[in-house]
Amino acid sequence: MQQAPLERVKTQRSKKVWWREEAMNIFPVRRRRGASAGFTLVEMMVVVFIIGLLAAVVIPNVTRAMKKARRATATMEIQSFKSALQAFYADNAFFPGTEQGLEALVRKPSVGKMSANYDEGGYLDAQEVPLDPWKNPYVYLQPGMHGGDYDIVSYGADGVEGGEGDDADVESWDLSAR
Known about the structure:
Shape: elongated
Largest sheet: 3 strands, antiparallel
Number of strands: 3
Helix content: 40-55%
Mean pLDDT: 83
Radius of gyration: 34 Å
Strand content: 5-15%
CATH class: Alpha Beta
Number of domains: 1
CATH superfamily: Glycoprotein, Type 4 Pilin
Order of helices and strands: HHEEE
Structural class: mainly alpha
CATH architecture: 2-Layer Sandwich
CATH topology: Glycoprotein, Type 4 Pilin
């Protein structure tokens, strides 16, 4: 059966396009058909190895950066508390007592020495006193035990006084970077 002239032209054109595509393709990919389609075990193992290698390099660096960021956050929050305590002192001529704690910076104290000039908006932007980056409350002592009017401490990752490394305390009287 003979092809109509129009069909013959279409077939020849499609062959020309196919040859042109093959000529431009420097590394032709052979397409697999049927049961042999998919990835080989070696290809899969290479991919898994590369992912494992990347994870081995990236995860320790991310973990180290997160630990530094937590210490920096605790330091900045203690600085914020110090500024708020100075504002409290400027309005009231005294620092909140230990029994009033840092809560006195967000709510008017109901125990201890009463404040006549308390700023009704509080002295922190938050509605609650934030926890430290390790989800433990900050410790506030007034008068301070280290020569200041007050002490503010975050007990670090372990939540216990003292410690080294990640467990080291972040203290208002020693805010140097560790």
